[in-house]
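Re: folding output
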Amino acid sequence: MTITQLEYIIAVNSYKSFSVAANHCFVTQPTLSMQVQKLEEELGVVIFDRSRNPISATDVGEQLIRQAKIIIEERDRFQNIIENIKGEFSGILRVGIIPTIAPFLLPLFLQSFLDKYPKVELIFDELTTNEIVSGIHKSTLDLGILALPINDSGIIEDSLYYEPFVAFIPEKHKLFSKEKISVDDLYVNDLLLLKEGHCLREQTLKVCRTSEKEWRDDHNKILFEFGSLDTLINLVQQNFGLTLLPYLSVKFMKDNSQLDLVREFNSPVPKREIGLVYSKSFIKKQLIGALKKEILNAVPQELTDKKEGLIIH
């Protein structure tokens, strides 16, 4: 019996698939399957019922997997003690991050973190909030970076910064002539939205004074709903409607034709709270602390101060 074999059966149980588990363990499926089978032969039990789709653990398999998780956690706890004594961190940190944060936050701190902690391997996956929460519960993710709150009793929330929203308004829109806009200027009928499942969509609707149900049938337009902010930005530039963007996204705009369409809000400025989330049982809290420090050092100082504003949850 090896630690690697225990990690494999945990992965198969989490993903309900040998092929998917192998992919996440960075080995071939035959290698993973062979190691699981060797463990079953050594123990003289069947851990997985392969006749089911998706694959599921047998009764004895569930007991063994629970114990395997305890063994892996204790292994990590042992290693964590050594790392804390030496002031060094190593290993893999699997991070889920929502798509409206990833392209704008990661470039700010990633290189600095890797320079300081070269023995840490970061694996990022762009996922929705629900997918991140599920991944943490299944132990397929160690950490999430998303918009708070998530209100899950099994998960710790650690606030990072408060990111204002800005409006991205086409030249032909009536609000384009304003230097700044207010929340009361917005109607959901005018908005281009991300598709369902993205928290920015729900936050955008909460900023507006009308609800999604108040869509008017006589409002003659196409309803666009996409999964990419880049697509929404391109559609705004073609005068199909306006949208709301996170503050950091503007920092990556180099084209003046895009910057000319950005409008900030009058006070109270709508903001979203960005933070880290992880399981209460996660061992390497010092590593999370190091990651948090690098993020806070990298984001604009004005974002780390809550100040006044309209926090959108």
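--- second protein (sequence, then structure) ---
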Amino acid sequence: MDFLKKNYEKVLLGVVLLGLAVAAAFLPFKIASEKQKLEDMRNQLIHPNVKPLTNQDLTVPDSVLKRMATPTTIDFSSPNRLFNPMAWQKAMDGRLIKVDSTNVGPYAVTVTKMTPLYLKLTLDSVTPMDTGTRYVIGIEKEAAANPRERTKTQKYCSLNTKNETFTLRDVKVPPDNPTNVTVVLELNDTRQRVEVSKEQPYRRIDGYMVDLRYAPESKTWNARRVDAPLAFNGENYNIVAITENEVVLSAKSNQKKWTIKYSASAAP
């Protein structure tokens, strides 16, 4: 104890010096550790650890792009007529109808009936003669433009005889039934050969006849053919074509054409 009392200053100085020596010895390790921490922080900032991208759900942006690819059309005309109000017209029965292409004018015409017109050929009689057998062929042209040509006429024919409709090319006589004669006719317009007998006449569709109705003015036209005139909605029209499924109208004022469709199931 006396030693410590007499030399405590030296002992304290020695402890301090020892601490300084330990600190001086530990300082290089501390500096190296701090440098490593700084280097690690620098590397994390310069070369961060990036996670790989996953498959993202692009359904929403894809749907938006698809909608943007389709232009949006805003129609302020039909059927709302926001800026151009629609005119109305009183029909013959007092009803009010919209004045548009489907309710007034050619497209408001409806085909109520479509009747086929036939070319008919019949074998009316067979007459044996000294100069050869004569055949009487009946001709009926329902689609003829001239009404006088629509009635049935008869032509006396022999083999290879030609008229304005056909040429008699052959005659078939069954051995077991000589009275059941079949003639072979070659049609002039198509060069088609057809067989005609008393039991089996020939017919083909050469045109159509229509019944029409225009409801806004309560007008009807029956049995109308090509070139028949029509008058409605303050305009004159002609029927320029009739097929199995449609009728074509032409305005006399400007030659503009309209096609009226026909459906047998929709006809009244």
